[in-house]
Amino acid sequence: MPATHGTRHRFAVVASLLCGWPALASVGCAPEAPMDGEAMPSAGGAAARAADLSSGMHVVLLGTGTPNPEPAASGPATAVVVDGRAYLVDAGPGIVRRAAEAAERYGVDGLTAARLDIAFLTHLHSDHTVGLPDLIHTPWVAEREAPLKLFGPDGTAAMAMHLTAAWEADFENRLSGSQPATPDGWRVEAVDIDPGVIYEDERVRVTAFAVPHTGWPEAYGYRFDGGGRTVVISGDTAPTEAIVEMCDGCDVLVHEVYSATTFRDRPPEWQAYHAQAHTSTIELADLATRARPGILVLHHQLGWGATPEEMVAEIRAAGYDGPLAYGRDLDVY
Hints:
The chain is an alpha/beta fold. Helices cover about 30% and strands about 25% of the residues.
């Protein structure tokens, strides 16, 4: 049975019814190191399509977007796939359909809707949680049998309970009507966590670590160890030494970022917000240089008009010379 640790045990069974680079070798990519600020080619192309994600640990970017409704970028959501099993981080809008697209593209049964049954929230901002009703309901309609296991900061269990209550009529209709429905797939087992090892099974160990984000009393990044690799996902965060400590040579570091150049043109009130909520290209270059990831993947990018190439160039100019990719939806690392 999976083990959970580092939680406050505020456990709610919600029932209101009521490549050349070692880090890329596993996806078959053979990119050359970016030069002169050129963004590294997407790992989500033909080489990644041919990758075998049934064994080992892989990162699939399901959504790289921001609160802004960008057509090419779904809301923030990442799948860490270990031996074919998917572990989700955040639930931005579009998460289930993006997962279904990835399942079809890469042949990963663990990303099909019925198999999506475990997720970790970095914090409770709407852009990271608006897809949670989708993650609760759509896989159940697709015949998920097990309850959704959900881990996150204080308030996660309450959010899950309220969302379940909001769709009480739907649950009653599907469970008592003529439509076939699994008896438990609609349920949510939600845990408000503390820093530390919060989940462990035969494939993976998940460690939560606190990060600073705009006055939220709790926000987390996550470290995944399993399948012979280590992956660190920053969540939304201002610069923090926790990234350096938790990565420390990790295989993949997925980190949010904003353009330090276009930041200067933002209104003062937005500058004050972003400085305490997010990490600039210059700040990330320093963190990544010391964290030494096998590859740094930019995620949840705030460019304000800066191109991917320009944002990569900012990081290079600030001194980071390690493997680097500008993440796009459905890329694999």
